[in-house]
Amino acid sequence: MSILHAPVRILGCGSLLMGDDGVGLKVIEALKKTELEELEGLDIEDAGVCGLDLLNLFDGARKVIIVDAVLAGSRKGSVHLIEGKDLLNGTEPHTLVSIHDLTITDVLRIGEQVQSLPEIVVIGIEIGELATEISRDISPEVLKAVDKAIELIRAEIGELL
């Protein structure tokens, strides 16, 4: 059973110890300082490194917005809106980052086999490369993308505002 209860959920993924990979968590941190934190019908949560436990956070949701780092070969700090259905059917060219064994795409593919999935949208922020050393630093180009990601999230949850 999910610890979350709202029909719309925003989940930030990443690791604050792996440099730019932590950008999804920075977006969640910024969102929690806005009026959205108090919005009825919306949960905003840090989902950590997004293993299979992510599926528990989908239970009972109508829509889930996942914010994570991507490697798409685009300009560092660019922001992408990725439909979950495109990830599932393999038409999305973005590579979602994982510092563990499973990417969000892997989790969604397993999830569709074992449960009913809500509408999924991924806000992906281009990080350019994976961190090779432990670091809490997020590059300025990636940090600038936080505001753009929040703008896309606001558009996605427009019906709640």
UniProtKB/TrEMBL annotation:
Domain of life per record: Archaea
Molecular function, one GO term: aspartic-type endopeptidase activity
InterPro entries linked to this entry: Pept_HybD-like_dom_sf, Peptidase_A31
EC number per UniProt: 3.4.24.-
Keywords, alphabetical: Aspartyl protease, Hydrolase, Protease
A Pfam family: HycI
Group of enzyme by EC: hydrolase
The keyword DNA repair is assigned to this record: no
One Gene Ontology term from the biological process aspect of the record: protein processing
UniProt xrefs under CDD domains: H2MP
Family listed: Belongs to the peptidase A31 family.
Name of the protein described by the UniProt record: Methanophenazine hydrogenase maturation protease
